Amino acid sequence: RTHARTHGHTYTHQHARTHARIFPDPIPPTPIMAAHPSMAHYCFDLLHGQLTKTPPPPAPATVAEGGSFPLFVTWNKLHASSGEYHLRGCIGTFSARRLQAGLSEFALTSALRDSRFDPIQHHELPSLKCSVSLLTDFEDGRDFLDWEVGRHGIWIEFLSDAGEPRTATYLPEVAPEQRWGKKQAIDSLLRKGKFRGAITDKVRKSIKLTRYQTSKVHVTFHDWQSHRKGPA
What we know:
about 30% strand, single chain, about 230 residues, 7-stranded antiparallel sheet
């Protein structure tokens, strides 16, 4: 589902369940910039401020003076029983947004308004990890296999059974996390994009594929807490 209130196209990223949306506008060129921990720290600032009804500190310079990027904000929650993190919310956009504006929107939208999950509650904060992904290096693929598992995210355009244009995307980490090869990932995207017919080589070859890369950073609650306290 699209969680609107953005000027661009907003996607709910589901680690094995990405929902397709029509994506008619061209993707703008993206300047190269590495994701920095301060970006995820800022997301924690915003969420903590929202949940405690206190004003967050000013955005750090890396955020306030950052460029414009397509981006995703992901929240994962540590499960004590398994010791593993599980998706708690993830929303982003393929349209370039000023970094501070994009993080300000998607840090809270992904935490509180991802329709797959209940809003994150204050008591969950200590178990959270925040990831910020800046999307870069968009390239047209020659065909549906012209990408590398673990390196590229993929965005596909195709026609539904009714002939309607559809799209779907997976961030770079999805295929290796699911232990998929290229064909399995493409078939999964078609299904999650609501393609209901038989998936044949003809269907796969009809896909228009765009590959992209991400610069990604992870910060846990305890990382953020240590950062806010400063040196001992």
